[in-house]
Write a structure and sequence with these properties.
Length: about 750
Amino acid sequence: LRRARTQIKKAARGCRNCPAHATAAYEPLRNSQPQQKRMPQIHAHETRGAAAWTAATKSTSSEDHIKRSMAATSSRCEVLLAIRENNGDDDEAYVELLVHALKCRQLSVQREGRYLLVTCKGDVLAREADACKLVKTRRSDKRVEVFVDRDGARLRYELDAEGCLFSRAEEALLLERACAKATVEQAAEGLGARWKKKSRELPPQIAQLAEDSLLEALKQTGVIEDSVILGVNTQMSWWAWVCAPSSAIHKAFGSDVALYFAWMNFFQLWLLIPSLVGGYVYHLRIEEGVSIDDDQWAPVYALAVCLWAALFCKFWSRREAQVAVDHGDVLLASDGGVRPGYRGAPRPSPVTGKLERYSPPIYRHLAYLLSIVVTGLMLRVALLWHVISLNLQGYITQDYVGEQDFYREDVAKYALEGEIFDPKSTEFYGLKALVPTLIHVVVVRILNLIYSYIAELLTKLENHETQSMHGNALLVKRFIFEAVDAYAGLVFLGFVRRDVVRLRQELIAIYCVDTARRVFQEALLPLCMTALTSLKNKETTKKSKKNDDFRSMTLNRTKSNIDTRAEKELAKPIYEPFDDYLEMVIEFGYVCLFASVFPLGALLSFVANFVEVRSDLFKILYVYRRPSPKRARTIGAWAPILRGLVYVAIASNAFLFAFGSEQMVRWFPQYFDRVSLRKAGFSKDYAKKVAREGGEKSAAEAQAGKGRVVVLVAVALEHLVVLACVLVELVIPSMGEGTRVEVQRLLYERDRA
């Protein structure tokens, strides 16, 4: 202990200005009994002090030492709450109530202007960890178990690299949980009466929400405008930048973000298989000197990709369970608890007998009907724009008889030869022909933003009881709309036009443009905006000094550290993993849905994902706000969406094999004949144009009476692949044997605790 005290004194030399150290007393040992020994106060913001505390803990086994040390240790993370400006007396009363409620939960609250800074001691973190059944790693055998805050229990768990019991993400999670659990009943009696008086002026659902979470109620009313987590920026090693390990990301940002990176790493690893096979198929096609329309090995590759996709989804479910065990979230309830914004009348629970909020299902069913109608109207608008865009880009012409219903002469005239949007124009190095594509991208982005706002409103009207149900409903709405935006043009080329050569060209353009867009929009653009804001603030400060404005200089000098940190963090955008998941799922669809047309899609996805993972890690660390840690054991509704895409891909590739190209002709030539373009459904002018240009003057068409055989072959192949995918789902277990045993052990220890 004397040696540890010496180390602590040396560690404290660099922090003499700390107010906490100014009042901390290094008391000598007053009693010779071991249980009365006292440890000096250690603060978590000192790395060397934390290391000394770790050494002292190892040299003694007294639980009293670690309790006193944790009681004196503050959380490394802080919650910043921004109060709305120009607030009146009512807002001040609500803020005063919130401060009292937070202090009643043993939280430390510091106010500076319109900002509240909330932190807590280590004992509060341990209390919240015990309440939420957090899982920690044992020091003895490196196995995980449910955390219990009892005598001698804290000494059983491992410490992190900085000598603290909880990681940064766990501290932020527990601190946010403690803030969210502050209720009206925990405030002072007089303030509680004032709140009840003012609650009559509020909507009933907000007053009801305050009984569960006062902070959420104030956010709903607008008294609390925003909240953000403050803390020391996480530094990643070069190994983390190369491999992006989910374990390191979990310790820094929590399970939700770490699960996304675990899925990305798993997806990129599995892309190696179709990348190599697709590259070999492309090599065979180049050697044979045929186009993708006549490639006989492309459909074989497509069937293999469908089986690969089914295996990928199944093995990801196994990997997902193991990641949940490693992160300590495998015992997490799947529903996520009652949603704070859930509206309902109080009634006794038929299970527990306690009062709970209840909303009749009929209201949710009516809201579902409204969501279907509004989403259908928005999809109609999106499809109408796609038709206009395809006419403007010159995709829809009068050359194809079956496309007359989509042809719009008043728009398509601008894409004719010699017009302003001629696709073959070489003016300005061919950039003029890209203007319709840029217009299409901008309009689609605007439609997605509009519908995202509408989808949020519709999901709130549905009034889901749990947070997981709310998130999944919102996810399905947005995925359906944005998937239509992503695949509508490709479906037209593949299933209406049945031009796989043009479809392949569009897929190549999408991969190249979309990868560049994601890197620029998600990482470079926000970084530039943040840098410009910082530069503008510096120029303002220099200008005030140059003009010798005494008042502004005085204000700049007296500006508190809280204000500076708050303005810096609140200026950053909020990170949501939804958009990242959506982009990767759409890309998964590109690889699977059009595998028979674009075998190199998996290889391009592998390269694009390598860049995507690093850009996502970069923007989380340096561009966006620190993500709010959330516990998650699965990727949610994305898993069934991926499985659904697998079965849609089977039907898509079967159609392209039999009817969208001449690939089936290479395998079953006895069922087809060569006919003229005019008989195959092309216009007379188009047939003459092809003849002038020396193109193919005929097309393959099923022989008379053999059409049903062609359909039968396509349906039989589709059903065989579907059967194989179903067998994969049934035969392979969703959880490995070791993972299953670990889950059962955790369940046993949780029940025993």
